[in-house]
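Researcher: I'm preparing a figure for a lab meeting and need a structural model of a single chain. I don't have an experimental structure, so a prediction will have to do for now. The sequence is pasted below. Please return the structure as tokens so I can convert it later.
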Amino acid sequence: MAETDIKLTEYSHGAGCGCKISPQVLSTILASDIPAFTDPNLLVGNQSRDDAAVYQLNSETGIISTTDFFMPIVDDPFTFGRIAATNAISDIYAMGGTPIMAIAILGWPVNILSAEVAQKVIEGGRQACADAGIMLAGGHSIDAPEPIFGLAVTGQIPLAKLKRNDQAQAGDKLYLTKPIGIGILTTAQKQKKLADEDNHIAINAMCQLNKIGQNISNIEGINALTDVTGFGLAGHLIEVCQGANLAATLSFDKIPLLDSAEHYLNLGCIPGGTQRNFDSYKQHLGLLTDKQKAILCDPQTSGGLLISVSPSAEQQLVDCLNEQNIKPVCIGQLSTTSENLSLPLVALN
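Model: Understood. Here is the structure written out token by token.
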């Protein structure tokens, strides 16, 4: 079979960050009765479900460590590698940090897909690393039943600029740097409903590095930061709310959508991960229409950054986003939680 005839999505049961284990199941997996070893230099671990771990090297500098990998979300090998690498590097930017090195993770069905196709995947990963200004310094590969690719990435951060997902403040405004709808459009592709003229929409979004995270880390009023990936906008916002004991109100009509996403949603292009996400955290959501559920729970791959910013620093953020040609859109606000614990963490207005 010629490389141009390969359709990688036909060799995997899931796609991109939609392959992620649901938050509910993940909580069971991570539960442990064994006393954990503690290290005072580990500033960010798994407790807040943040995007990456952060280890304090000295009084001024922290090292960021993360890994992310998944099965093909597009058919083209080079593009798959580039998207997977971009997605992994995003975790460093989501802490406000600078990536410095990456290691590849490759699982490949060697009896089904040729080494030449795998080479194209790696090349895509190298391209994303080059775009981020880092080396793909090595890696590890195994013979696997489905193609898998991703990176382990190391970054660094001045500790004074570290941005976590659990430090939001009441009154903060919420901004999103990429439109929602990647899961919808990639499902349209998998269902063979995606029009040729729309093929680039999700790909362009997924290949866009979240370098803006480095820029906004200089803004003191950015209180919390995270990237929106497989758990959807609602899932990652719930993590922000839980970490800071806050509630969020979203302006649903202001949530930016990728071009044509609503069209394909109306055609029934809803990924399986949407329902898994909803089932995992529906108790934290207010009443939703089917459309609202499909958008808020849509699993994103290499999605944008969700930013919690104090009103006093909002104009600085807007200026920074405009400088990077990112349309600034405020999608909601955070507030103190009610004493009525039955009220949702995330509501719509």
